[in-house]
């Protein structure tokens, strides 16, 4: 009987009706501590289950409207008058209920529930709905913050790739109307010294001078790459050329120190900078 109804709900392929039966004592996860609640369950495909659920709540609304109409009837009336009255009152309410079901954010395509009006669980259900909404909003906020963090990480990775390749990858996230940033390709100036290139002189002082010369020779090569980079403005190009000239000068000074020490030790001088930089005009 409708007066014993506690709840009608569906979840995916499951449709369930909860009724209050004082003659039976049953424990359900939806009883909220009450006893005498019996759950009847049916299974079918999702679309059929949802259609059955919509028809069930419409029938229940019809029962509530009929019950309300009986309470308002002052005197005995014919069945035809009652049927006409119920039809006029029930039809717009059923239509409104179906429309509300389609728009309600709590009733999704995969599940739904309706606590009957006047049910003992209606207040508890409303509180649970509010808590559920707050919980979903908190989860949504956390997911949005995590998404923004991942987007920023993706931007940094794309910018690093653009600096290496000279081309912005298509995975770079762009907002509405946002243009991709212009990135210049980074000139490769890194180098690594091979252990076999380091001199193995018996004299520690001469070995330090030779090692210093090899390191500065690599710095000269890096400064030359930077100075010869295309598409530079006039001031930057002038500055890099000056840095390259200073590096070449420093390399020549190191070689002069090596030659002075070699002559002092009775050894022949070298011309490493001339061989390392053929055709270069050393200041």
Explained architecture:
- Keywords: Coiled coil, Cytoplasm.
- InterPro entries: CUPID, FERM_domain, FERM_PH-like_C, FRMD4A/B, PH-like_dom_sf.
- This is FRM4B protein.
- Its main location: cytoplasm.
- Pfam families: CUPID, FERM_C.
- The protein is of the alpha+beta class.
- It has a domain of 62 residues.
- The protein has six helices and four strands.
- The chain has a four-stranded antiparallel beta sheet with strand order 3-2-1-4, covered by helices on one side.
- A hairpin with a 2-residue loop joins β1 and β2.
- It is rod-shaped, with a radius of gyration of 43 Å.
- It starts with a strand and ends in a 7-residue tail after the last helix.
Summarize the structure.
With 283 residues, the protein is of the alpha+beta class.
The major β-sheet equals: 4 strands, antiparallel
* Count of alpha and pi helical runs: 6
Radius of gyration: 43 Å
Structural class: alpha+beta
Distance between the termini: 106 Å
| Approximate strand percentage | 5-15%
| H and E order | EEEHHEHHHH
Question: In order across it, which strands form the biggest sheet?
Answer: 3-2-1-4
Spans of at least 5 consecutive residues with low confidence: 103-110, 116-122
Oligomer: single chain
Query: Which bin fits the share of residues in helices?
Result: 55-70%
């Amino acid at each position: 009987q409708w007066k014993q109804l506690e709840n009608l709900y569906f979840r995916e392929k499951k449709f369930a009706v909860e009724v209050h039966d004082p003659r039976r004592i049953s424990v359900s996860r939806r009883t909220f501590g009450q006893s005498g609640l019996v759950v009847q369950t049916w299974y079918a495909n999702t679309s059929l289950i949802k259609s059955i659920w919509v028809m069930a709540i419409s029938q229940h609304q019809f029962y509530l409207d009929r019950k309300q109409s009986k309470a308002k009837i002052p005197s005995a009336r014919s069945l035809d008058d009652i049927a006409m009255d119920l039809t006029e009152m029930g039809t717009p309410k059923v239509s409104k209920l179906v429309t509300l079901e389609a728009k309600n954010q709590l009733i999704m395509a995969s599940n739904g529930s309706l606590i009957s009006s006047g049910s003992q669980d209606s207040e508890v259900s409303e509180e649970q709905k509010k808590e559920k909404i707050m919980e979903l909003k908190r989860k949504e906020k956390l997911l949005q913050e995590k998404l923004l963090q991942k987007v920023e990480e993706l931007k940094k990775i794309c910018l690093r790739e653009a600096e290496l390749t000279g081309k912005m990858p298509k995975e770079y996230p762009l907002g509405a109307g946002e243009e991709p940033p212009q990135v210049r390709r980074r000139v490769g100036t890194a180098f690594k010294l091979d252990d076999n290139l380091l001199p193995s002189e018996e004299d520690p002082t001469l070995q330090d001078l030779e090692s210093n010369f090899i390191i500065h020779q690599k710095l000269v090569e890096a400064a030359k790459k930077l100075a010869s980079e295309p598409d530079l403005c006039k001031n930057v190009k002038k500055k890099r050329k000056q840095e390259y000239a200073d590096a070449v000068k420093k390399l020549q000074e190191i070689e002069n120190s090596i030659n002075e020490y070699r002559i002092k030790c009775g050894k022949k001088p070298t011309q490493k900078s001339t061989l390392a930089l053929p055709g270069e005009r050393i200041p």
